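This week, look over our next protein:
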Amino acid sequence: MKNRNVEAGDEWYTPPELYNQLDQEFKFDFDPCPANRPEGWDGLGMDWGTMNYVNPPYSRKLKEAFVKKGIQELRKGKSSVFLLPVSTSTVLFHDYIKPNATEIRFIRGRIKFIGVNTKGEKVTNMCGMHDSMLVIFKAVK
């Protein structure tokens, strides 16, 4: 495997161009995983907005917790758009995402996330290690 100087940490953020494109379509009013979150921020422990953008940490337990929280919020009548790595053979995909998603969109090409590489440098041109998908949980009105 190629050394990309990318640490497999959870602090990688959506490129503004992608977020802005999605925001134009969906009109987000809340992000439980913002890049500039204040000390003590807990996106899992708070109520979400009406239309949420969620690029959760990709570590397995946190990713699963955010998807399950998104489904709980869906049951309260709240919608969410998740940016997730494509992993269609998992229990999370088959038991939680697929039965609850209104739509799943596979993104062509790899997203260049924003973060800090293993050398401590801020980077904006490092492709993720996985393909990405948008999972849309749209509340019925």
